Amino acid sequence: MAAPLPDAGEFETWLNERLDSLEVDREVYGAYILGILQEEESDEEKEDALRGILSAFLEEDAMEDVCKQIIQQWADYSSRSAAMKNADAEVQAIASLIEKQAQIVVKQKEVSEESKKRKEALLAQYANITDEEDEAEEEEPAGGIDITANERSLFKNTNVEEVLHRQKQKRDQAREDAQKKKEMDKMQREKDKLAKQDRKEKEKKRTQKNERRR
What we know:
Layout: H1 9-21, H2 26-39, H3 43-54, H4 60-137, H5 149-213
């Protein structure tokens, strides 16, 4: 048996008005006809049951037209109800999907907020350290002149370049001093060698002179 529809208000209103036009007691037969339409599966079964009810009030020709009209109205109503149910189901599905996506967005936002707070805390900590270093390195400009952040950055870059330049000068000077020392040591060794040879020559000549005297 077909499952009963939850609300047949629209169709029931039309059925009651149709029964009134046929001078059939709506209070007695309206709910009965509605029950048949909800319970019977096929249109043939519905029509046979309706004939059994309306045969007491209508002629054969009129009864057939009324039965078909009632069945057609019920079919139209059932189709609209099914479409509305499908639409409601789609709306519910979309609403559920939107809700899930919203929950995901909220969770992602919460994670992003936590990550943002951690980053801000780290940046604040780093900024405090940097400020302390800047205060130690920078001096108050004379005359109360305000120095902008860009100018301070320029001064810092200039100071770095000067430090690097001085370090390079020191390395170059050390290399030059080492080369000079190396040359001086070489010259000293040559002098010592020549002096040593000169002493040997003098000693040799003195020895030969002494031997000739003997």
